[in-house]
C-alpha cells in the first residue's frame, strides 16, 4: 500500500501568508490559489486592487501545475517554441505562474498566482512554497 503526504490547512495558510507578504512587499495586486495534488482548490485570496479575472487564472495555473507535476511555465515554453497544440489541451493553461509543491519528491499540490508579469507571478508562488 502507498502512503502520501497531503497539505494541512495550517500549511495552506502559511503558503498564502508568505505569498501575500511577497506580493505586498513589491506592491503587486495579485490573486493566489493553492490546490491539492488533484488540482482541487484549498485556498484562494485576491488582494485589493486585483482584477477579478486573476482569481480564475491563478486557480487554473495552480491546477495545471498540480496535474502536470511541473511549473506551468513549461507549457508556455512549449507553446512559444511552436507546439501550439498545447493551446487546446483540456485542463491546461500555458501561462507562467503555477508552481508545484513537492515534499520528498512527491507533488502534494501547487500554487498559482496571477495579476502581474508572468515571472513576478511565479516569484510570488515560489515565495509561498518556501514557507513550508
UniProtKB/TrEMBL annotation:
Pfam families reported for this sequence: HbpS-like
Keywords associated with the record: Plasmid
Family matches, as Gene3D superfamilies: Haem-degrading domain
Domain of life: Bacteria
InterPro entries to which the protein is assigned, alphabetical: GlcG_carb_metab_protein (IPR052517), PduO/GlcC-like (IPR005624), PduO/GlcC-like_sf (IPR038084)
Protein name from the UniProt record: GlcG protein
